């Protein structure tokens, strides 16, 4: 038996000599890299007290996903994303794409960022999951806990900072991908990077479509993205980007109460400009951003009802300016100060063929903030971090946001972190001004939701950094939760969540990588889409030109419905098995790759959104060409 085990290990690890050389190991986890989400400037991940997960380009590319959120939902402990179909999340009632971190997220309590700039629909405050395109992303940094110190409102439960792609190497590189699969699902992608002298560009176009696994569940989307940069000199650089997405989605309704003609036509866009400076002892940036959307929604009708006599329209915007500068004037010290300004809101109305039925809302909110954060490294083993933010809103007044923590590295490969941070979320325009009588009445006197988070984590690298594990414990104390009381939006009671998160990765050898994560969550108030237990495990084997990946995700105690009484609550437990195989012709930079992947291979029946059963086993095959 020993000989068999040794032989199997030898076949899997055909390059054991390289495995013992740390320079030959290209870890898929990259947990030691620098991050920018913690202090607005590059710092080593092990020196900041916040719990930050990093998903790099290699992991995103290996998934062959066109959407980003499913990748995050698997690979980040404590983070869960709702889904309802083969592809596409949609908007309005019945939509998916809600991001929860540690049981906090519904109502846009997790802030989505493009290069540090907030992204959400200005009228209703919801995030925009279908616009987060995997091919346009270099890496993702996720703060698993409040990020309101640097990013303000809506970063109450956490931050997902999507860092867009720039073409940094000299020359040109073009990549194209075509995928076909179950339910007539088709995905097309082409991108091009170009770098000459001081100028760089990255441009991409994506198109996805599917018939859906249920009647009346079609979805199609076309995304375009361009990112341009120019290095003025050794100290200054300008960048600008533009992203556009146009999509159409059909919502079939709950399977027990199907809907007809529930169709949404969405146009979303975002653009930004930045002037960055980098000097020996200081660096910073001025960033200006603007994102907007136009929504046209037919709310549809159920069997026996009459079609809706009007359509819902909305135009929204989110505009802002960010100015920050970081100083390194004393050895081991970094001090960052910044100011933010945001104006968000929009216009919503109901319209019919015969004329306007009525205004819904036409409002905007102004927010201005200032913040400062300092980090001090001592004796190469201790990092102290503290900061404060003050934000003033035209809707509710002012809010103070403190944060403090430390990271200590007592011996090689070990990091211990502890932190205290506050997060908050401003009420949305819907909650402040839009009434859905007789269901709920708006309340212009709402206060922000807020919470305090305490966390402690221990991480350890072993075996020349090929093995890594990290354990995090957290406690959340929240107040002023916004909910409906007597048919009016109100601030109610307190809530608390607590739990643990564990992640580990092992680069067994050059061509075999194992990784897993697990999270446990306890909530004193049940909410939907936040599982008590979440487990993910994956193995990737790359013998020569082949790549094989198999992963499993198990979800337990996931509330899909929270009713007025415990008897009305509905929970789901499920396990899904996914696999992917590919073969590469040519080099990594230039060549052709054939791949096939299957999801939910055991055809598990389950729902994440109540009344929206997920598809059984699905398969996709494709060709990826790089030249």
Outline:
This protein has helices spanning about 1-10, 15-20, 55-65, 70-75, 150, 430-435, and strands at about 35, 45, 50-55, 80, 100, 110-115, 115-120, 135-145, 160-165, 170-180, 185-195, 200-210, 220-230, 235-250, 255, 255-280, 280-300, 310-325, 335-350, 355-380, 380-395, 395-410, 415-425, 450-460, 465-485, 490-510, 510-525, 535-540, 545-560, 570-585, 590-600, 620-625. The chain has six helices and 32 strands. A hairpin with an 8-residue loop joins strand 12 (about 200-210) and strand 13 (about 220-230).
Q: Could you characterize the architecture of this molecule?
A:
It is found in: Cell outer membrane. Its main location: membrane. Keywords: Cell outer membrane, Membrane, Receptor, Signal, TonB box, Transmembrane, Transmembrane beta strand, Transport. Residues 270-601 form the TonB-dependent receptor-like beta-barrel domain. The chain is 6% helix and 59% strand. It contains six helices and 32 strands. The chain has a 22-stranded antiparallel β-barrel. The longest helix is centred in the first third of the chain and has 11 residues, at 2-12. Mean pLDDT is 89; it is low at 1-31.
